[in-house]
Amino acid sequence: MSSELTDLSYVVLNLIGRNGAGPHDLVQMARRGQRLYWAGAESKIYEQPKRLEKLGYLTSEKTPGKTRERTHYRLTDKGILALQEWLALPSPFPRIQNEAAIRVQASDLADDPAVILHSLQPLRQEIAELAAILDEAEQREAQFPHRRRQLRLLHSLGRRLLHAHLDWIEEVERELRPRSRTAAGPLHHPQTPSTPRADQSRPTRAR
User: Fold this and answer.
1) CA angle 191, 194, 199 (to 5 degrees)
2) Quick check: 32 and 136 in contact, CB under 8 A?
3) Interatomic CA distance for residues 85 and 2, integer angstroms
4) Residue 58's beta-bridge partner residues?
5) Residues facing 74 on adjacent strands
6) pTM for the model
7) For the residues of 69-124, what is the DSSP string, one character each?
8) Are the C-beta atoms of residues 17 and 75 closer than 8 Å to each other?
9) pLDDT digits (tens, 9 = 90+) for 29-81
10) In this structure, how many other beta carbons lie within 10 angstroms of the beta carbon of residue 4?
11) Could you report the per-residue pLDDT of 19-40, keeping only the tens digit for each?
């Protein structure tokens, strides 16, 4: 692994891939679900291609755009070799910063456990949004025949992650819901366009 390349550098080299991409394309890919697999600030992703080109890992060309020319980056032989060397390295368990898990751990200090349950509702909404993004990503798999198998495996991981979080949220709700509310029925989830019913918000299981 080259000392001049960061973890994010390899993410960008991967996203540029066989067909190449521009800075705007990279940011769009990050917005369309890449955060399921890698968290990175858009500004950091946007500035990587110029740096990688200076180091010889990318080459660029100008292509026509709607209002002005766009820069399109491609991997050089040096960039491909760097990726190949990186692929052979051991994969560690992913770094995790799960605020919901820490809130649940600290819930014994809460005066009212319902505070914790309500704090999980935005997570449900985000899971539904990410599931919709995955739906779109799966529909685009055919546009990348050289990576269709790899994308299918990646999307399978995304589905499993979303399912695991939904299952865990439901377990937390069962365990922390006040006894008086248990008899009355499940915690109500507002049914809005961005927060579907529980049976509809669950992502389709990966094939």
Assistant:
1) 55
2) yes
3) 9
4) 75
5) 59
6) 0.76
7) -EEEEEE-HHHHHHHHHHHTS--PPPP---HHHHHHHGGGG-S-THHHHHHTHHHH
8) yes
9) 777 766 788 876 677 888 899 999 999 999 999 988 777 888 999 999 999 99
10) 12
11) 999 888 887 877 776 678 887 6
